[in-house]
Amino acid sequence: MTETANLSLPLLQAxxxxxHVTVNEALVKLDALVQLRLESLGLAAPPADAHDGQAxxxxxxxxxxxxxxxxxxxxxxxxxxIFAEPLAGWRAWIVDTDSEMRHDGTRWVPxxxxxAVSPTGAAFATRVLEFDHPISAGGAQPTTxxxxxxxxxxxxxxxxxxPISGTVQAWSLGSEGAPDRFGSGLxxxxxxxxxxxxxxxxxxxxxxxxxxxPLDGTFxxxxxxxxxxxxxxxxxxxx
Length: 239
Prior knowledge:
By secondary structure, the chain is mainly beta. The chain is 6% helix and 48% strand. It folds into 2 domains: 1-111, no CATH class; 127-234, Jelly Rolls, CATH 2.60.120. The chain contains 1 helix and 16 strands. It has a 5-stranded antiparallel sheet with strand order 8-9-16-11-14, with no helix packed on it. Strands 1-5-6-7 form a 4-stranded mixed sheet, with no helix packed on it. Strand 6 (99-103) and strand 7 form a beta hairpin.
């Protein structure tokens, strides 16, 4: 036996030289897999700016140093990669979607929050995606963070956490083609807020940014914290 049964940690062998190499690899795996955080499940190629200890779920079409590792966990270490096989029941926090996922033995599926998951992985979950947007100088601007693809949005709320400066007197919040969908005449002072509740849910079939538009002036700076309140759906698992 050269590896442990669950985490596939390398085991020391009798009369093995350079035992520290094996021990260090095991510690790196433990450090990444305990309280597992995956930066994303959507990358198929290694990111150029990975830091030691960061981990990703390898997506289909894996290439480069990730070739042949589809579905596995890639852990950045010392300029290279260590890989781990997720097991059914493992949970991970996905950083780029701000959500929790569970592995069903084949793939990562949403963990229901105020929703439900079927035995085969079909899921309905409610989620809140929260992020901060530093306002840049000028006119209307999109957020870099996107509303997730296939999200059924019920509301977008916001809070000014750094006063909005410039000649702007008020601002509106919306999305492409609907600049005031989530609010208009919004305040610029600290703790001003938006409560953009939709009369009917709106489904976005691809990633889409929020759009901030100044009214009666232009932006100079400030920062707004956004929360997208939405429902997420997943089909039954593959057979």
